[in-house]
Amino acid sequence: MHRSTASPTLPSGRTLGLGLALVSAFAFGGSGTAAKPLIEAGLSPLHVVWLRVTGAAVALLPIAYRHRDAVLRRPGLLIGFGLLAVAGVQACYFAAISRIPVGVALLIEYLGPPLLIGYVRFVQRKPISRGAAVGAGVAVAGLACVVEVWNGLSFDALGVLFALGAACCQVGYFLLADAGRRGERPVDPLAVSAYGLLIGAVLLTVLTRPWQADWGLLGGSVVMNGHSLPALIPAAWMVLVATVLAYLTGVISVGYLSPPIAGVVANLEAVVATVLAWVLLGEHLGLPQVAGGLLVLAGAFVAQTSRPATAEAEPLEAATVGVPTVGVPTVEAGAAGTAGATASRVSGRSSRTSRGD
Fold first, then answer.
1. Would you say 346 and 353 are in contact if contact means Cβ atoms under 8 Å apart?
2. How far apart are CA 345 and CA 357, in angstroms?
3. How far apart are CA 323 and CA 273, in angstroms?
4. Cα 20 to chain center, whole Å?
5. Which residues, in sequence order, are CB contacts of 69 under 8 Å at separation 6+?
6. CA 281, CA 285: separation in Å to the nearest integer?
7. Quick one: pLDDT at residue 58?
8. How far apart are CA 140 and CA 109, in angstroms?
9. What pLDDT digit, counting tens, does each position of 124-148 carry?
10. What values do phi and psi take at 88, rounded to 5?
11. What count of other Cβ atoms lies within 10 Å of the Cβ of residue 284?
């Protein structure tokens, strides 16, 4: 109705945000494909997670030093991001898969986007468009097919609680990434990523005890789909692409988009992980997974093309540090996706991983 008054920067902002979010989703989705050869070579899943997060934290040390004032400006935000978006998802996910099937744990963890929509609607009391809600539901249905949840249905109350904890930590990723650019003391999204990974690395060091691992394996070779290659290649990909690139693009994209829409499109990570496992690891891709992937894509498309819930909704605050203003009219009117919160989801289906494990 008010198209004539729309900000001229909105289309480019939506396009840039969507592009960054897709890069992040694809980068996160490849984490398990890179991690699996390392696990098969002898590293434990937890030590691979530690390698991923700590390696990324070291790579981002120059950014952390450049933005060292962020520690004094928003210490609570940085600690919360490291605790929830990095370490929390890891700990909860691995606790969950120790008690319930991997597919069930993945599906519950990816309830994060619908939980995020509920939080924004009923706690923050901000409007949510019908498209965002429908897109989230369709995407979750597709994920149930992608992970083939029916192949391992079982119920363990504590395991389900741990998986829900991982989903809640995933919600924290999007909310904290968005909160960093708001308020009187906004923090550059690059600083949020750098310090979040540093804090997460410290916490995971206590949890995983990396000094017990045989790191000499990284000097040898690993096998990927029958082909031998240096172990440092998948390790470097996991650190630099599936973590550094994934976090930087993901956190920045939330500044252009809304957390609810970003969360829905982040479900594409599971589809990317499954396809990469099929292409690079030779894992079987069945008809239900293909159909599920199409559903996830449909849900993401519906969500990212949705219009504002109300035409008169209050505009989002402009990002004053690191992310330019794009004139987004409501909480979910941005384009799509991002990625979240942490090291590699490694397990029996370790190739189906993303920010969450």
1. yes
2. 3
3. 28
4. 13
5. none
6. 11
7. 97
8. 10
9. 777 766 666 776 777 777 777 766 6
10. -60, -45
11. 7
* Both structure tokens of 86: 């990095």
Provide the β-strand partners of residue 227: 224
**Lookup: tokens for 185:** 């003391």
Residue ranges of the chain with per-residue pLDDT less than 70 = 1-14, 101-104, 128-132, 135, 146-149, 151-155, 277, 281, 283-285, 289, 297, 300-357
In this predicted structure, what is the pLDDT of residue 329? 28
- Please name the amino acid found at residue 246: A
